[in-house]
Write a structure and sequence with these properties.
Layout (H helix, E strand, L loop, with lengths): L1 E8 L3 E7 L6 H6 L6 E7 L3 H14 L3 E7 L8 H13 L7 E6 L1 H13 L5 E6 L2 H7 L4 E6 L2 E8 L4 E5 L8 H18 L1 H9 L7 H17 L14 H10 L6 H18 L5 H13 L10 H11 L7 E8 L2 E7 L1 H13 L1
Parallel strand pairs: 2-9, 3-4, 3-5, 5-6, 6-9
Antiparallel strand pairs: 1-2, 7-8, 10-11
The chain binds nicotinamide-adenine-dinucleotide and zinc ion.
Length: 354
């Protein structure tokens, strides 16, 4: 059943279809927007048996010639070697610019498949079928594709909008609780930035059975920012709330702290910093922390503020004079400020003690 269709009006206009048990309609959805040539399903090997066959069958019914290409969904797969391997495969089956790639998996799969799609024959179409909550509420729209290089996350990439996004919430039923909560951290972020209803929905309790309306609300928040700032030169930076700390934690832990957990700690720490600077009130800070804890997300870390800030400025060494930080002032009320290392240190050291 389809719950909602959201249209993203970026340089390329595309629909996001959100529903339950809609993988079986993939062929219909994609044959409306794409020639029925080859369809290459680039899928996370751990979900191939669960979902790829259903999509394949549906596409074949509409006349697509379907190929399944599996990748291991590990951060280290986002590299040039895997991109080259995929491109060799596309060449070996005679993929042309008329054909379509379908990324079936989480953000690792869509970042890699999207990057390959953006450079193969100077760019071919790709669709995204997210199977993680994190991808569904965040990674699946916006068109950012990336691989890692020289130990730098997302060092190489492109902006390449998908032609369609199909979110079947049934896919989230095979996620562990831990994996499911990773997307919740991003949802909390969306709620803080722009939409109190999201925070209320989260308070009521979100699971794989009832998450479709929440997914839609979160994507509406991201849609607003990417339509205004498709190439991330300005207002889109608000979507990075909590992410300055989060990226530092992911780096310091060498990837052991997953993205959603890092965002959760980053949000709580940034809110505490805003609280000690007198920007927001205690009620707001406690309300958000309670939601994060409700989903067993971490809110603190053993890394010190020195370690976090040194990492932040090590990563951002190319930005002169400071970095942009988004601070919450309350629900749907944020402020983006430029801070020097000393200012950020002062702000975060009080938050780390909390
Ligand atoms: N392009 C963007 O805008 C954007 C935004 C956010 C994150 N990202 C990227 O996304 C990546 C993280 O992606 P992610 O958190 O979505 O997940 P992931 O792709 O890292 O997958 C997480 C784990 O869940 C497993 N998995 C996926 N779907 C499953 C399912 N339905 N059932 C059971 N297991 C399943 C995977 O095999 C993997 O072990 C990072 O590389 C990050 O940089 C990109
Ligand atoms: Zn994020």
């Amino acid at each position: 059943m389809i719950h909602d269709i959201l249209t993203i009006n970026t340089s390329k206009k595309y629909n996001v279809t959100i529903g339950n048990d809609i993988l079986k309609d993939t062929g219909t959805t994609l044959s409306d927007i794409s020639k029925t040539g080859k369809a290459i399903i680039v899928c996370d090997s751990s979900v191939t048996d669960l979902y790829a066959q259903k999509i394949k069958y549906s596409l074949e019914n509409k006349g697509f010639a379907v190929f399944i290409y599996a990748i291991k969904a590990e951060e280290k797969s986002k590299n040039f070697y895997e991109t080259e391997r995929l491109i060799r495969f596309l060449l070996s089956i005679g993929t042309t610019r008329e054909d379509i790639i379908i990324a079936l998996g989480g953000g690792i799969c869509s970042d890699l498949a999207g990057f390959a799609a953006s450079i193969y024959m100077r760019g071919i179409d790709y669709a995204i079928v997210p199977t993680t909550t994190l991808s569904a509420v965040d990674a699946c729209i916006g068109g950012k594709t990336a691989i890692n290089f020289d130990n730098i996350k997302n060092a190489v990439g492109s902006f390449h909008q998908p032609v369609s996004v199909i979110i079947d919430c049934e896919c989230f039923k095979s996620l562990s609780n831990k994996q499911f909560s990773q997307g919740i951290a991003e949802a909390v972020k969306c709620g803080i930035i722009a939409n109190e209803t999201i925070i209320e929905m989260l308070k009521q309790g979100i699971n794989a059975d009832n998450c479709a309306p929440l997914v839609k609300k979160c994507l509406e928040v991201k849609k607003y920012f990417i339509e205004k700032d498709e190439y991330d030169n300005g207002i889109r930076t608000k979507l990075n709330l909590g992410h300055t700390v989060a990226h530092a934690l992911e780096k310091l832990s060498k990837g052991k702290i997953p993205h959603g957990d890092a965002v959760s700690i980053g949000l709580n720490m940034t809110i505490n910093a805003a609280l000690s600077a007198g920007l927001c009130n205690k009620n707001f800070a406690e309300r958000i922390k309670k939601i994060l804890l409700q989903y067993s997300l971490p809110v603190k870390t053993d890394y010190s503020s020195e370690q976090i800030i040194n990492q932040v400025f090590y990563d951002k060494k190319r930005t002169d004079g400071g970095i942009l930080i988004t601070l919450p002032k309350g629900l749907a009320n944020t402020q983006t400020v430029k801070m020097t290392k000393e200012e950020l240190y002062k702000l975060l050291s009080s938050a780390c003690r909390d």
